[in-house]
Design a protein that fits this description.
The structure is a single chain. The chain has a single domain, classed as Rossmann fold (3-Layer(aba) Sandwich). Helix content is 44%, strand content 17%. It is built from six helices and five strands. A five-stranded parallel β-sheet has the order 2-1-3-4-5, sandwiched between helices. Helix 3 runs parallel beside helix 4. The longest helix has 15 residues.
Length: 144
């Protein structure tokens, strides 16, 4: 586990931690093990969400089909197919076409945001991610 994930483990909850609930399932797609681990820990401990993980665009498409997440958090730059192309593949499958996909990236917003939204992503967040904004964005698609 990364240092950031260890630190998050001891943070006070942002919201809803400890409540008895089934918040929903989120697929976290990022090629960085540290970023993915941090987001998974945040979502599980502070949001009460069940998580799935993918490190490549191809793996994201497979996990979207097999895992049926309620929301997908998708990095844009990934090994293999990028997040925009993975989104197009997810949108082209009738069983996954309606899953909300939230883009996040360290890339400049200009150009990439338009591509992401045109591919069917529902929101675009800039890295470093504002954690409160991330949780609020997710809650738009998985109401508490």
């Amino acid at each position: 586990m990364s240092l950031a994930a260890h630190r998050l483990f001891f943070l006070r909850p942002i919201s809803r931690l400890g409540e008895d609930m089934s918040a929903g399932r989120i697929l976290v797609v990022d090629d960085s093990d540290d970023v993915r681990s941090f987001l998974v820990l945040l979502l599980e401990r502070s949001g009460g969400y069940e998580t799935l993980e993918a490190a490549t665009g191809e793996e994201a498409v497979e996990k979207a089909i097999s895992g049926r997440p309620d929301v997908i958090l998708m990095d844009i730059i990934l090994p293999g197919i990028n997040g925009v192309d993975a989104t197009k593949a997810i949108r082209n499958n009738p069983s996954t076409a309606q899953i909300p996909i939230i883009a996040y990236s360290a890339l400049p917003v200009v150009g990439w945001k338009e591509q992401a939204l045109k591919a069917g992503m529902v929101a675009y967040l800039q890295k470093p991610i504002n954690l409160q904004l991330l949780m609020e964005t997710i809650q738009k698609f998985i109401p508490s």
